[in-house]
Amino acid sequence: QVQLVESGGGLVPPGGSLRLSCVVSRSTFSVYAMAWYRQAPGKQRESVATITSNGSTNYGSSLKGRFTISRVNAKNTVYLQMNSLEPEDTAVYYCNRVGPRLFDWGQGTQVTVSS
Predict the structure, then answer these.
(1) Which of 96, 107, 110 is nearest to 41 (CA)?
(2) What gap in Å lies between CA 90 and CA 40, rounded to an integer?
(3) DSSP H or E run through 36
């Protein structure tokens, strides 16, 4: 069974930065397109960034170039660098493969943007 372990969240003021990490316990990690998702209170989970097995990336249109997704296949890890954070970015952030077939969800990491 694949485990997803997200970390790196926290409380930051508006304009701050965070770097999230997700370690995937799957030896074939490198073949999967991966994504970061987020779920804000009272809202549905949404995809914010994706990265293919060869490193091509795509982002949600609302992010305006503030987030960067990357991966290190040798470490089975996918990252999300988040800059110029806004209160609207407050959510629990999760990683998973790109759908429709998903791994079991991890616990996520809470990101709170507040002064």
Answers:
(1) 110
(2) 6
(3) strand 34-39
